[in-house]
Amino acid sequence: MLSSFALLGLGLAVLLFVRQRNRNRSGLPLPPGPRKLPILGNVLELPTSFEWETYEKWGRKYDSDILHLNAAGIDLIVLNSVQVTTDLLEKRATIYSGRPHSVMAMDMVGWNWLFLAMGYGEAWKERRKLFTRHFHSSGTTVHRPRETMFVRRMLAQLLAAPTKGLEVTREMVGGITISLAYGITIQPKNDPFIDLAEHAITGLAESATPGLFLVDAIPLLKHVPEWMPGAGFQTKARQWRELQERFRVEAFEKTVRDMANGTTQPSFVSEALEALEDSADAQRKRDIIRDTAGMFFAGGSDTAVSAIHTLILAMVSFPEIQAKAQKELDLVIGSKRLPEYSDEADLPYISAIVKEVLRWKPVTPFPFPHQLIQDDVYNGYFIPKGSIILANSYAMLRNEEDYPDPDAFKPDRFLKDGKLNPGIREPSTMAFGFGRRECPGKAMALSTLWLTTASILSAFEITKSLDENGNPIEAEIKYSSSLVCHPLPFKCTIKPRSQDAVDLIRSVAETH
């Protein structure tokens, strides 16, 4: 006689088989892709790391910009080109703006309050509207004085810690986001709010990675006890949930206490709470403010840190590009002041470096996936309702028609006759998501990255560190594989270009 577990497994197999047989009644083919096994589909060959690289290769193998994969009954649609992505995620946004429900991330770890991961509906619209009201592109200039203050402080910290550039820039980004969101002043080193955010966001990135946890394909597994063999995912979920719960409330509650004590600085939370009127649903609106602030802190810090660390890695690896940037800065800015946002139009090479940083090593090679909410047909292919849509930004940013020699770091590809070339596709249109799910903090992230790039290169030289024998230590160009990709730790030295630079930074730091 079959055991209960065997019967359950057989039942699931039959259910998946029947479900797949009944999905496509249109008679049209699915998009091309690897051959599927019965029941399992492509589970055994789906990559578990650097998926975007494999999917780019499969796109070439099957000569298609759109691929279909199946993970034990879950349809995956990979989009490898700007054209297909625009056609579906932007022109058909009304049916392609859903979010797949991650059992691990949403149910077990508890990130269901994060509007990045919410389904397309009223709850998502309400939170995004609130976020956009405070951080929309036309309003980024309001926040620039505070961003500038943190960038200036970062320069002074680099003077004191020339080999700690990665740590110093991480603290700067955390300081900007937590200040704008909560009005909290961080500690110079090892700030508890920033440490908590880093650990919590790591759990978010891993738990939300499609295909990484079997429980997303078989939700019944979430009921498996933590002590059972093979239930290590339960331990991770418990630990990540504890971090998520603290991340959601601790900074918010500190701002509320500071407001009560009259010691708070202006921030998104303080302004939104002060504007909150007494009403029957005041508590619900207060929760929305809390969750929207958490979204800004989560979404703004990790991605910006990754981009700035890629900038530093590129400057260490390609000193001739750094020298060319400094030549432009010296000509336009000189040595008597630091760059300002108002200088951007006069520094096209700096802007080209920023664009190439976003293109060369995209922060999110796979932006958070979309989900199709009804059956669709595209270019003669049937796309089933419920399909998880994976826009492969990595493949798009390596398209050789747009960007010849894509492996090379070449800011000049964006220039023509010494000016930015509007005929070259803008990388930020692929680096921050697509359609109605585009990152709402995109404008602020770009402005912070630009000022950080201009400021560091104006005052400092980024070089390889030396070992105990005085030999240069090579900085390897290697990255993590996650929802947000970071360069693996590398060594470098960030030293002032001159005594004039030292004096300038110190004098400016005294005013901030």
In short:
The chain is α+β, with helices and mostly antiparallel strands and 512 residues long.
Description:
Residues 1-20 form the signal peptide. It holds the Pfam family p450. The chain has a four-stranded mixed beta sheet. A two-stranded antiparallel ribbon has the order 4-5. Strands 7-8 form a two-stranded antiparallel ribbon. It has 18 helices and ten strands. With 512 residues, the chain is α+β, with helices and mostly antiparallel strands. The protein is globular and about 70 Å long. Helices cover 50% and strands 7% of the residues.
Question: What order do the helices and strands come in, and which of them pair?
Answer:
Elements: H1 4-23, H2 51-61, E1 66-71, E2 74-79, H3 82-90, H4 93-96, H5 103-108, H6 122-135, H7 140-160, H8 165-182, H9 192-207, H10 232-261, H11 268-274, H12 282-317, H13 319-332, H14 348-360, E3 370-371, E4 376-378, E5 381-383, E6 388-391, H15 393-396, E7 415-416, E8 419-420, H16 428-431, H17 442-459, E9 460-463, E10 493-496, H18 499-510
Parallel strand pairs: 2-6
Antiparallel strand pairs: 1-2, 3-6, 4-5, 7-8, 9-10
